Every structure is written in structure tokens, then in C-alpha cells.
């Protein structure tokens, strides 16, 4: 049900705080009537620091905050405005695989005819399962999880494969970013950025200072993402994905600021 006098306020809806402009997702109605004269209360899952970015501080994935929705909030129309899902990033677990298979099927396709590449997907899933089960130590996967929609994205890292080595300056301190996939309906909402930040932090924690990534023509529309994240184009690997299908290669140096934290991707240099 909605609030008395505000039928537009519903659990699961998104609302903008009139004064600050910040956006919130409503969880459930606590009560219809409070001690306030104007009072209608709604309990929300809200971002602890930057609501619109969908981020949460480490160790505080879901923060509950009671807000007075009677006059302070306006509903957001999902037909005219996309609201990023509140997400957290964490290490891949076995139970995440079921969420990831449809995401892989959406993206891992023949670029000529659009057919799903089942063999390639099976190889990726096999590596993910082995990583989740602790059966291999050469790959690490991180997922982005929405409170409401489950896992909506994934990214992995490994030691750079041999074909990437001409673009590696520090062989013992470089990881290769692999398998960055975001659920199609969540593209452009910041999920990819969150995954990239989480991967850089994980790489830094494991002693890496550089990240390299290669991407072919199948994912050409995503190449600008790596540019935006601070990766610098270093060259191409010719015919890496078949005759004439070159791989663009980027490299980024992870930069630590004076506080000991990683800088924003847009501020990092390569």
C-alpha cells in the first residue's frame, strides 16, 4: 500500500529528495501515521554517502534510514529517468553462476550472425566455477550485486597471457582485465565503473601496479569505456580473434594518492 495522502509512494519506487536532489529507493512502509503533524514515514534503503552513485562503504552494504516522505520527496518516473540500482561488489561465489549465464549469452555472440557462442561461454563458465570453488589461483572474479535484482555484472583478472606481454612493462606487477560483462539493461548506470574500481582495488591489494586489457571488434562499442576509465591505448594485436580481427590493447597504472587510497579512474594515469 502507499501512504495516506501520497498514493504515489510505494515500496520499491524511486524518489528524489526535493531539497538535496539525491535519489532514494523505498524499501517498505514503516507506518502510515506518526507523531509528526505532517508525518508519514517510509523506511528506505539509501546510500550511506552518495546515493545517486549506488555505492556503499565497505562493510556497510545496505543502510536503512527512516525518511519523512510526506512533503520532502517527489516520485521518479521510470519511463523518463533511469535510476542506478544500488549495488555492492564482492568475490564471485558458486551460486552466482546462474545469474551470469544469461548475461554471457547476451554478449558472447558471433559478431557476423548474432548466434550465441555456447562453446566459448562454457569455457568462461568453467573458469568461473573453478575460481569460485578455489580450484585455481590464476584467476579472480568479482561480481556486482543488486539488492533487488541479484548479480548484474562480472569482471575477472589474471596474469597477462603471452600475447599481451609486448604491452606489459612490469611482468611481476601487472594483471590482465578479462570478461567484463554487464547485464544489458544496466549498461550506462555505473555498474561497469563499479566493477572496474573493484578490480583495480583487488589488483592493488595483490601487489599489482598495472592493469592491461585487450578487446576485439566484437565489443567495439565498449572501447570508449576503457578510455573513460583512464586506460591508455598502447597498440593492437593483429588478427588475435581471426584474420583481420585485431585486438585493441590498453594499459593503466594504478595510482595511490597521499591517503593510501586509489585515485578515481578518471584521475589515474598510464
Automatic annotation (TrEMBL):
Q: Which InterPro entries match?
A: Acyl_CoA_acyltransferase, GNAT_dom, NAT_camello-type
Under PROSITE patterns, the record lists: GNAT
Keyword Magnesium appears in the UniProt entry: no
- Which part of the chain is the N-acetyltransferase domain? 87-255
Q: Name one GO molecular function term.
A: N-acetyltransferase activity
This protein's record includes keyword Transferase? yes
Note one Pfam family from the annotation. Answer: Acetyltransf_1
Q: Which UniProt keywords apply?
A: Transferase
Name by which UniProt lists this protein: N-acetyltransferase domain-containing protein
- Native species: Candidatus Roizmanbacteria bacterium RIFCSPHIGHO2_02_FULL_40_9
Taxonomy of origin reads:
Bacteria, Candidatus Roizmaniibacteriota
Amino acid at each position: 500500500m502507499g501512504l495516506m495522502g501520497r498514493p504515489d509512494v510505494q515500496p520499491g519506487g524511486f524518489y528524489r529528495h526535493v531539497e538535496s536532489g539525491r535519489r532514494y529507493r523505498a524499501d517498505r512502509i514503516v507506518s502510515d501515521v506518526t507523531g509528526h503533524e505532517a508525518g508519514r514515514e517510509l523506511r528506505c534503503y539509501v546510500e550511506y554517502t552518495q546515493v545517486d552513485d549506488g555505492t556503499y562503504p565497505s562493510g556497510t552494504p545496505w543502510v536503512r534510514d527512516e525518511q519523512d516522505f510526506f512533503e520532502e520527496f517527489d516520485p521518479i518516473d521510470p519511463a523518463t529517468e533511469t535510476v542506478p540500482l544500488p549495488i555492492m561488489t564482492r568475490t564471485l561465489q558458486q551460486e552466482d553462476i546462474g545469474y551470469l549465464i544469461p548475461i554471457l549469452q547476451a554478449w558472447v555472440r558471433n559478431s557476423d550472425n548474432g548466434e550465441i557462442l555456447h562453446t566459448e561461454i562454457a569455457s568462461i563458465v568453467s573458469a568461473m566455477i573453478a575460481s569460485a570453488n578455489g580450484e585455481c589461483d590464476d584467476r579472480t572474479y568479482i561480481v556486482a550485486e543488486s539488492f533487488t535484482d541479484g548479480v548484474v555484472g562480472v569482471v575477472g583478472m589474471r596474469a597477462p597471457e603471452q600475447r599481451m606481454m609486448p604491452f606489459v612493462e612490469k611482468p611481476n606487477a601487472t594483471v590482465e582485465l578479462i570478461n567484463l560483462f554487464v547485464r544489458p539493461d544496466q549498461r550506462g548506470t555505473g555498474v561497469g565503473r563499479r566493477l572496474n574500481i573493484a578490480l583495480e582495488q583487488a589488483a592493488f591489494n595483490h601487489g599489482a601496479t598495472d592493469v592491461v586489457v585487450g578487446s576485439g571488434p566484437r565489443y567495439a562499442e565498449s572501447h570508449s569505456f576503457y578510455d573513460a576509465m583512464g586506460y591508455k591505448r598502447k597498440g593492437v594485436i593483429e588478427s588475435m580473434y581471426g584474420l583481420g580481427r585485431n585486438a585493441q590493447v590498453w594499459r593503466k597504472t594504478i595510482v595511490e594518492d597521499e591517503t593510501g587510497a586509489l585515485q578515481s579512474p578518471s584521475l589515474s594515469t598510464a
